[in-house]
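Q: Structure tokens for this one, please.
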Amino acid sequence: MSSAARPPRRRVLAALAALPLLALALGACGYGSQKDSAARPAGGTGDAKKLSADTVRIGYFPNITHATPLVGEQEGLIQKELGGTKLRSTTFNAGPSEIEALNAGSIDIGWIGPSPAINGYVKSKGKSLRIVSGSASGGVKLVVDPKKISSLDDVKGKRIATPQKGNTQDVAFLNWIAGKGWKVDPQSGKGDVSVVRTDNKVTPDAFKSGSVDGAWVPEPTASKLVAEGGKVLLDESGLWPDGKFVITNVIVSQKFLDEHPDVVEAVLRGSVRTNAWIKAEPDKAEASANAALKKLSGKELPAEVLDPAWKSIEVLDDPLAASLGAEADHAVEAGLLEKPDLAGIYDLTLLNKVLKAEGRPAVTAAKLGKQ
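A: Here is the predicted structure, written as tokens:
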């Protein structure tokens, strides 16, 4: 990361979830333990031709950070590409639970953060999964109580929440602290700044009560804090080249990829076309994502939270492989992770085939796999 200011980002469209870092088996967004919904058959298209599998099972989080599968399933855009092959989905609230489901064969393809993807890949010695596409970038902010903190230097000596020890935001904050020349013990969180590991579900209450002075968190938690009177002191996208860093990937079971590449290609085509529709129809897509959330969780996000969160994340197909490697390096430097071997974690062959057919340029695996 570079702390240099970056140009304003273009309008961006999905909203976040967070991610655990490898070898820690923590929840990707810190939104609580797994919450499996009953698999929801979206149904094939009757007389349409089936692909090599009767059904494909996908997994994702009921969160606007996973806008692609939320909107893609809600609008039938992924099912359309599958023809007579049925789409079934299960939702999760924690990355490790989704990885477990992938390893157990309960799902075939998942939308997930970089840290649990790295964890699953390394733990299986590269045998369980591949990252086959990107899905979203951005959506992480440092939000503070303006009565206590008015500048970045004021963060020193304060209590700042992150979702979980070793998760993606925790590592990013520790990396930023190190860049300021401050010292913090990565295990206890104690030092020149008190890093308070707090579940995203309770961070807004902790902020409102004054138990923490701010938080380095993903959307929509960041916008929830702003709605409680917080101020955005720093947007993490400003610390990355071109303002982009991976927040959500698409992964696939290696076994399913080997046996059903046509199905994986169809899902990726649905993902690419969903992202194109989200960018072309941002207002309709935002409403669609919120409708999907209501269906899954029983409630919508209020406009004062949804609107800024939705605008702070960009849906994309590029997995931003270089940023995944950098995130892993930051965890190693923070002392939370042993150096992982990520060679082969990406297989972008089918994605680049889909992009070529759509008249789009190929994306790169940054020397971390096939492209």
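A few notes: The CA atoms of residues 352 and 362 lie 5 Å apart. DSSP finds 13 helices and 14 strands in the chain.
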